[in-house]
């Protein structure tokens, strides 16, 4: 029921407005975890840890919860969840929220990488290694 509308207790109790979407709520939680990676009250490596947790959580979410909803869409399931969203609508909202979260994670990583460098900690890619060091990785 929209704000300002009245109805019976039964109607109000069954209203989709009363329910939070489990998946979207989880993404909001993961957003809060990511925000901790920007909290300057935390030491640098703790902020890096929060970024890592956020990325790991999102990977697992995509592999399990998002994949399950995609399967429901492929199977033609259109039954709405208690919050009133169909699987397809949930997938659409999850994709938008996930893309924003990924962009913020990447931005945070670039910033933290600069802070790490300023502290004498460099994160190298394979292309940054010399031939001998690359050989050691191959062992």
Count of domains: 1
User: Structural class from helices and strands?
Assistant: mainly alpha
Task: List how many beta strands DSSP finds.
Answer: 0
| Count of separate DSSP helical elements | 5
Distance between the termini: 63 Å
CATH level 4 superfamily: Polyphosphate kinase N-terminal domain
Radius of gyration equals 21 Å
Task: Please state the second-level CATH architecture.
Answer: Up-down Bundle
At the third CATH level, what is the topology name? Methane Monooxygenase Hydroxylase, Chain G, domain 1
> What is the string of helix and strand elements?
HHHHH
- Quote the average pLDDT: 91
Helix percent band: 55-70%
Outline the low-pLDDT stretches: none
> Quick one: overall form?
elongated
Largest sheet descriptor: none
Which terms would index this structure?
Methane Monooxygenase Hydroxylase, Chain G, domain 1, PPK_N_dom_sf, 0% strand, kinase, RNA degradosome polyphosphate kinase, mainly alpha, 139 residues, elongated, 5 helices, polyphosphate kinase activity, PPK_N_dom
Secondary structure: elements and pairs:
Blueprint: H1 9-14, H2 22-36, H3 44-74, H4 87-118, H5 131-138
Give a written overview of the molecule.
The protein starts with 8 loop residues before the first helix and ends with a helix. It has one domain (17-138): Polyphosphate kinase N-terminal domain (Methane Monooxygenase Hydroxylase, Chain G, domain 1), CATH 1.20.58.310. Helix 2 (22-36) runs antiparallel to helix 3 (44-74). With 139 residues, the chain is mainly α. Helices cover 66% and strands 0% of the residues. The protein is built from five helices and no strands.
């Amino acid at each position: 029921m929209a704000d300002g509308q009245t109805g019976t207790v039964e109607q109000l109790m069954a209203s989709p407005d009363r329910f939070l979407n489990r998946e979207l709520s989880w993404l909001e939680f993961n957003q809060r975890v990511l925000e901790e990676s920007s909290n300057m009250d935390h030491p640098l490596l703790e902020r890096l840890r929060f970024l890592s947790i956020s990325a790991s959580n999102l990977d697992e979410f995509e592999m399990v919860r998002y994949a399950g909803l995609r399967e429901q869409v492929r199977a033609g399931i259109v039954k709405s969840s208690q919050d009133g969203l169909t699987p397809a609508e949930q997938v659409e909202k999850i994709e938008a929220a996930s893309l924003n979260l990924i962009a913020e994670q990447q931005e945070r990583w670039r910033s933290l990488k600069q802070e790490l460098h300023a502290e004498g900690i460099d994160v190298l890619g394979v292309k940054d290694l010399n031939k001998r060091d690359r050989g050691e990785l191959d062992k």
